[in-house]
Amino acid sequence: MTQQQNAHMTQPVANADITTTSTTTIPNAAKTDLSTHQSKVIKNSQKNPLPDPILTEVNRRCRIAAEQLKRYSDVSQLPADTRTAPDLNIGFGQQRALKALQTALDIHASGYHVFAAGENGLGKRTVISRLLQRIAVEQPTPDDWVYVHNFTDPRTPMALHLPAGQSILLQQQVNNLWQQAKKRLNQRFRSDHYQSKIEAIKNATHQQETHAYDALNAEGKQYDLALTFRPFDNKAVFVHPSQLPTEDTSVSDSISDAANSNTADNNDDGEVKVATSHLNNNNKSTSAKTKTTSKDIENKHDDNGYEAELSNFAQKNHMQKRLNQLTIALEQLEDEANDAIEELHHNIAKRALQPLFTPIRELFTENQSVLDYLEAMFADMVTHVERIVNGDDEEFIAAVLATTPSRYAVNVMVSHKPDSGAPVIFEDLPTHLNLLGHVEQITQLGTVTTDVSMIRAGALHRANGGYLLLEASHVLEHPYAWQGLKRALQSRKIKLSSLEQMLTLTGSLSLSPAPVDLNVKVILLGEADLYYELLELEPEFDAVFKVRADFHDDVIRTNEHELALVAKMADIIDFAKLYPFDNSAQAALLEHLSLQAEDQDRLSLHSDLLIKLLHESNRHARLENQRIVDVHHVTQAIADMDERSGYLRDLYWEELKNGQQLINTQGQAVGQVNALTVVSYADSEFGMPARLTAVIQPNIGAGDILDIERDVDLGGSLHAKGMLIMTSYLRALFSQHHALNFSASLAFEQSYAHIDGDSATVSEACALLSALANIPINQAYAITGSMNQLGEVQAVGGINAKIAGFFDACREQALTGQQGVVIPMANVKQLMLRDDIIEAVKSGSFHIYGVNTLSEALTLMTGLPIDTLNKKKRYRKETLFGKVLQRLMLWDNNQDTGDTQLEEVTDKKSKKNKKRKNVKKKRNVSNNKMILS
């Protein structure tokens, strides 16, 4: 059956009505004229057939007026420009989220932290930050935290907390204290008073030593022995008087000479040295540990040839023992002298440092931990005063960039201004180190060292006592960051740990600072999908983040909310120092926000899009030397953004112009439909029509429908669901009347990408029913819509882009006035079409229809009634469903006819074969007879 015959068959009722009306209204006297007139009417009616009443009614009911295609903002209800806009309401459109946030802030129990869920670009961080800053101003300012050296356990620095602002004061006071202490100690140990004290101790010790040696020497003279010091090692020995050197005068003179030479050596350099080792140098001659045995004496006599001259060995041995006893006594005397010098140093240090520590103690009288630290520092400086003054120990020397040795440094971790409120911190790089802090290390000559001054604060330290905002996806990107954050929030303590040891299970020796008490509210920002993943994969997530704050994508479009959005525009404009926007520009922006929300009655709350539009509109005004932005500038900005993201769309239109992409916007075709689709790639999204075809294979299968896209793994699960729903609908529709003795296949032609979604269900049903009934579909129409198993058409997404895509295709192939789109009636409220499309609808060159059922869609696409029933509750023959049943029965009859003919041919062949066998048998009998005769 050709397409022309099909087109003629679509209007049988209209022709019949015309004929019936003509025969009943013409009198009998004019029958001759009647036949002539009737033939003319029939010929004219065949050229221009009257539309079917059902089609007329469906057209009237489903046609969408131009006024329904877009909702415009009332310019008169908007401010003259954004400078007169109302004040911004921070929580506009996000009351649910802010209420949840306030609940978490009011509860101070463990685990009441917040996960703010919403799409990226909604401005969650800005809204929450502004709200928290308003709340934080009225909150008490948290304490400062510092780390200082632990003089008891140097590997475990102490954490001290002070009232806000006092950490810097403590650091400054300790730095000044160190500078003054070092200067004063140098002065005291360089003074004449100190030197005289040292000389007195040394002289007293020297006199005691001299008297002891003189007494021992006098005792040795009784045995004809003299005490002398060997020149090569300055060791005291007893010898015979004849063996004394001629230049040696006396024991006391030798001791004095040794002391004078040592003193001169110590005073040669200009540096101030604490006299801790003077006695050791001065008393080498007097405190040598002499242990002369009888064998040593014999060796001595052998060397010098005096063995024969010693007459009384026992007496000399006795005096040598007395010398050893004197040496031990002199060592004790030396220790007493050293103790006296050390006591002198401590007394000098105490008297010098006490006036310096007193003012600092008075500043921190109410902080016992600071007083304890100052007391420990005072005792340490007194104990190590010699090392401080000598300056020969790195531990008591300030580093290159520091003014105070790390031993006495105050490392300020967190400092707040008094009465500044609670801190609000956003950490954009939430690594483990940046969240929890870390201990730095320095390498010098291959040696890794660290100290208390290298402890660095993390975001939790800075936000302690306040609020911390984090991007959830950023936290999960960095190793151990989530584990560290969770551990800190659960224990309510910030404990610095070595990430090197966590990663390698080894690591160098490092500091282990004391933990810091934690009191913070953490707000994680992320999308809802990430929230559900964390709930599923992280068992303890719900125990730590007990409150979820949902941020909405859009808001109901009312005059009040439009004014609130204008206030938001004004706030962005003031912050970015842009030109003011007049009310026409405001209206254009609001309409574009409704387009982004895909609903006439809603406004998108995506701040990123709004900020982008404001900046680009301001650019166009600046290029035109305008001081105020109007609708023309906003329109240009929207067009620029559309052009930037339209590269793929332009490639498609080029293929359409060149004929490479096969799309018909005129004529009719059986089993072929223009389906409306949306192409999404990265940030580019546009609508375009796609040819959908259906092919029937009669007498094969039982109503099986092959989804080619699904079988080649180009169709998604939602697309497969739509196909199954459509198949179930058709089975329920016709299987009760006749067996489904066919199979079919559906495919999107020239589609090589992944397809998903169920918005092609209605178009697939139209193509399949057209092929089953052999009824053509008007190619001037394109259709989209989802469908349920009852044949009801459901709303779909991307409706504005889909309509725009087919309109552009029709415009490329010339608008005929017959083209249009068929969409779900449920999508009419989501229409925010371009102005050129609306003008085309007003002028009648383009049409938009909204349908509620598949029958309405088929009526518009085929021009036939679909499911009209007769008195026997059967589909009328002239309906689409009736024609489907006719073809099903026709295929069945053709199959039966073919089977009957095959049986008749088989019977005829068998009869002929039987006759041939009988003739042959008779011949054989006759032959036999002839043989017998």
UniProtKB/TrEMBL annotation:
What positions constitute the catalytic site? 759, 802
- EC number per UniProt: 3.4.21.53
What are the entry keywords? Coiled coil, Hydrolase, Protease, Serine protease
The processes (GO biological process) annotated in the record are: protein catabolic process; proteolysis
The answer to keyword Protease applying to this record is yes
Show the stretches that span the lipid bilayer. Answer: none
InterPro entries xrefs? AAA_32, Lon-like_helical, Lon_proteolytic, Lon_Prtase, LonB_AAA-LID, P-loop_NTPase, Ribosomal_Su5_D2-typ_SF, Ribsml_uS5_D2-typ_fold_subgr
Task: Mention one GO molecular function.
Answer: serine-type endopeptidase activity
A Pfam family this chain is assigned to: LonB_AAA-LID
What is this enzyme's catalytic activity, as reactions? Hydrolysis of proteins in presence of ATP
Q: Where is this chain compositionally biased, Basic residues type?
A: 909-924
Q: Coiled coil: which residue ranges?
A: 316-350
What are the residue boundaries of the Lon proteolytic domain, all occurrences included? 667-864
Q: Where is the composition biased (Low complexity)?
A: 251-265, 280-291
Give me the ranges of the annotated region Disordered. Answer: 1-48, 244-300, 902-933
Q: Does the keyword Aminoacyl-tRNA synthetase apply?
A: no
Q: What are the Polar residues biased-composition ranges?
A: 1-13, 33-48
Entry's family note = Belongs to the peptidase S16 family.
Task: Report what the protein is called.
Answer: endopeptidase La
> To which species is this protein native?
Psychrobacter urativorans
